[in-house]
């Protein structure tokens, strides 16, 4: 659908109510969890039916929350928005919840990882602390918000200055960040705290606007955390928040959250509908009118992290963390946008990378976007033992079930992007070293319409599955976008096997690191299987004929070599240029990224754009005050 600004608020409420009613348990007075239950209550309070308002009050008089983050922050908004609709018992219970959650919120900190939960806690501390005239809490919340701002805008090391927050550019969680900033900017009484929240909200709106690719009606990557509909494109919390706050018609497909069993993506629309956002005019101009091409890079900093795992205790399987620590530290994010496509990558994973799209492509397939057939999304994953997008999976590395709301990343992705080119390397997560029957890298395309042309080793492929046992050049022509994929296998992988196949509304190009009888690997052996692909995206603006692009790519060569026994060197050569990416797959240290022998390491930010507002925002620092 194309959103209509005149009735979009009502659509948000209706879509949330309809989805919540599918999951609401009247006996338990619960819709999934307390947070979603509160969102459902919003839709009932907004109803013209007295019975709905009565049910909302019944729910709110019963609901107990103890998360200290999203739920109390949302309850505070209800208290402000509906003072005349809330019954005495509902209001008293809300107040009790707000007060009892203050000590919980006071324990939450930003630790260079998750952003949305700490922000919700800080906002609750300030708002509820002021409400109950408990300055110890409100002052703590203000101080923690100041610390957060200082960290993401001014952390400086020898070779880096931080530009972007750790949980960056998430189609789901960046939207939540906007919600909590907007709540504080609207309701906080302390002028300094309110001004800081407003500043952060408006700077984040500029960031969102920068990533909006109007020609495809999608957000450009990379994404720190993404659900299946976020990765493929077409719907997200950020889409809904953007359309509502910007008051702009955009394309949405609201069936996608149900397709991927992600009900929260619809139920949360209730909160969006009752918030006041503070979008600066510059954000609207950048989102809707920026010129192409535009390219930018930003540094980020992430905490070290463990992999999710399970352990057996008293004949029960308990969730836990694996002992091994993933390296954190500095990384950078690169986005290249033209009128036809946007390519975004992250140099290293966000925390354990479970929902991380370190590689993301969107491009349009029509002049105007009005259906899922009119654009295509692409991203990548490494999976073990048959995991596949769009279905429930048993996640081998975690040792537990993951539903279809996202395909869990079972590899560690590292990317070197230079403009429209990328070298992508994946390291299998060492936690998956036992009982391995299959390891593969999937290049995942949304597939609501076929490609205009797909060439594998020069042959036109129209029937699937298609298998190959060498390293062919794969070329795709789709509307005005041209894509080349050049597989790159580690030296220790003797069989270079691949498969192109369709699973529902996705097409995968799969590259196999291992496929055979179940076996155990050492963790070190798994890390040595680091491999991936070289990637090039172009448009017919530069290659009028598909054959011209195919000839151009035919001269390209990608190679992988071992240096000093442990460093993996991937080299892409073509058209007189050389792109080199050197990675230590055992320590996850990026040792070299050069373009024609020029080091492309990033200190803070970089941008190429004809638009002064874009350049000023990026070069000055996204969150520098």
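^ structure tokens above, recovered residues below v
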């Amino acid at each position: 659908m194309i959103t209509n600004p005149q009735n979009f608020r009502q659509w948000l409420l209706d879509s949330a109510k309809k989805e919540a009613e599918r999951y609401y348990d009247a006996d338990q007075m619960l819709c999934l969890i307390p947070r979603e239950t509160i969102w459902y209550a919003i839709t009932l309070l907004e109803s013209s039916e007295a019975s709905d308002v009565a049910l909302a009050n019944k729910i709110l008089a019963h609901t107990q929350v103890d998360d200290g983050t999203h739920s109390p922050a949302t309850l505070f908004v209800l208290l402000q928005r509906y003072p005349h609709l809330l019954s005495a018992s509902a209001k008293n219970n809300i107040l009790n919840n707000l007060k009892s959650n203050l000590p919980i919120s006071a324990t939450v900190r930003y630790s260079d990882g998750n952003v949305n939960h700490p922000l919700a806690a800080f906002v609750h501390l300030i708002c509820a602390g002021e409400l109950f005239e408990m300055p110890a809490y409100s002052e703590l919340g203000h101080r923690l918000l100041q610390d957060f701002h200082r960290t993401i805008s001014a952390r400086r090391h020898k070779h880096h200055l931080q530009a972007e927050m750790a949980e960056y550019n998430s189609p789901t969680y960046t939207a939540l960040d906007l919600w909590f900033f907007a709540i504080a900017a609207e309701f906080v009484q302390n002028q300094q705290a309110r001004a800081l929240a407003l500043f952060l909200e408006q700077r984040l709106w500029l960031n969102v606007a920068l990533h909006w690719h109007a020609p495809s009606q999608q957000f450009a990557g990379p994404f720190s955390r993404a659900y299946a509909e976020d990765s493929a494109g077409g719907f997200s919390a950020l889409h809904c928040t953007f359309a509502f706050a910007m008051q702009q018609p955009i394309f949405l497909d609201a069936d996608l959250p149900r397709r991927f069993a992600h009900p929260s993506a619809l139920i949360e629309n209730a909160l969006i509908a009752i918030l006041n956002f503070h979008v600066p005019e510059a954000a609207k101009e950048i989102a809707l009118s920026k010129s192409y091409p535009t390219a930018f890079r930003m540094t980020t900093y992430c905490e070290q992290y463990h992999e999710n795992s399970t352990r057996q205790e008293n004949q029960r399987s308990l969730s836990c963390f694996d002992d091994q620590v993933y390296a954190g530290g500095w990384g950078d994010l690169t986005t290249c946008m033209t009128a036809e496509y946007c390519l975004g990558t992250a140099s290293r994973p966000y925390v354990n990378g479970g929902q991380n799209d370190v590689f993301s492509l969107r491009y349009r397939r029509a002049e105007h976007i009005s259906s899922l057939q009119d654009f295509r999304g692409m991203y990548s994953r490494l999976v073990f033992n048959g995991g596949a997008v769009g279905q429930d999976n048993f996640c081998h590395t975690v040792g537990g079930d993951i539903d279809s709301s996202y395909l869990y990343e079972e590899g560690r992705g590292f990317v070197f992007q230079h403009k429209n080119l990328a070298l992508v390397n994946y390291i299998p997560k060492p936690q998956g070293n036992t009982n391995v029957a299959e390891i593969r890298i999937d290049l995942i395309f949304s597939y609501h319409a076929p490609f205009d042309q797909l060439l594998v080793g020069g042959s036109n492929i129209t029937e699937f599955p298609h298998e190959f046992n060498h390293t062919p050049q794969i070329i795709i022509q789709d509307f005005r976008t041209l894509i080349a994929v050049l597989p790159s296998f580690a030296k220790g992988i003797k069989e270079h096997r691949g498969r192109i196949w369709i699973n529902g509304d996705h097409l995968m190009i799969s590259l196999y690191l291992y496929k055979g009888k179940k076996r155990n690997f050492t963790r070190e052996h798994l890390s040595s299987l680091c491999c991936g692909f070289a990637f090039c995206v172009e448009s017919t603006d530069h290659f009028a004929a598909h054959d011209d692009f195919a000839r151009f790519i035919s001269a390209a060569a990608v190679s992988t070599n071992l240096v000093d026994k442990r460093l993996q060197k991937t080299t892409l050569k073509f058209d007189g240029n050389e792109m080199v990416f050197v990675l230590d797959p055992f320590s996850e240290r990026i040792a070299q990224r050069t373009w024609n022998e020029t080091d492309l390491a990033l200190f803070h930010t970089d941008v190429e754009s004809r638009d002064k507002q874009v350049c000023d925002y990026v070069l000055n620092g996204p969150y520098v005050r």
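The radius of gyration is 24 Å.
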